[in-house]
Amino acid sequence: MTSPGGPWAPHLLGLVAAGGAAGSVLRYAVGIWCAQRFGAELPWGTLAVNVAGSATIGLLGGLMIGGMSITNETRLLLITGVLGGFTTFSAFSLDVGLLAQRSAPTAFLYLMATLVLGLGAFALCFWLGRQV
């Protein structure tokens, strides 16, 4: 079912924004908690949100593929909003998982392209930023 106003309808944008704000605050809180609990030598908070977000989106994705009905509004609030604000790694995990359902080689290429291009872009721009 298409929402009145299409994908840019104000209420849909509001759901994504509210979920994103909640996910970002949650990510911040997990980061602080992990640093206080385990120290700041390693980015434990980032690891925690990536694993927790991937687990959560895996469960939701599996339930949806298994036939669980979820409204577009709920998907936008929870998956795009909360999990998107919490960690984009969860969206990446879902993309790879869904691609693997259709084609393992395509999923592998997407995974490798994301890692190589993402880390490569980071390295290049990190280097450029240090040159300024």
Could you give the topology of this structure?
Elements: H1 10-38, H2 44-65, H3 72-86, H4 88-102, H5 104-131
Helix pairs in contact: 1-2, 1-3, 2-4, 3-4, 4-5
Roughly what percent helix?
A: over 70%
What best-fitting shape do the alpha-carbon axes yield?
A: globular
Number of helices: 5
Count of individual domains: 1
Catalytic activity: fluoride(in) = fluoride(out)
Membrane topology: Multi-pass membrane protein
Main location: membrane
Family: Belongs to the fluoride channel Fluc/FEX (TC 1.A.43) family.
Protein model, in words:
The chain is mainly alpha-helical and 132 residues long. The chain has one domain (6-131). It is 83% helix and 0% strand. It has five helices and no strands. The protein has helices at 10-38, 44-65, 72-86, 88-102, 104-131.
Concise overview:
The chain is mainly alpha-helical and 132 residues long.
Top keywords for this entry?
metal ion binding, 0% strand, mainly alpha, Fluoride-specific ion channel FluC, FluC, metal-binding, 132 residues
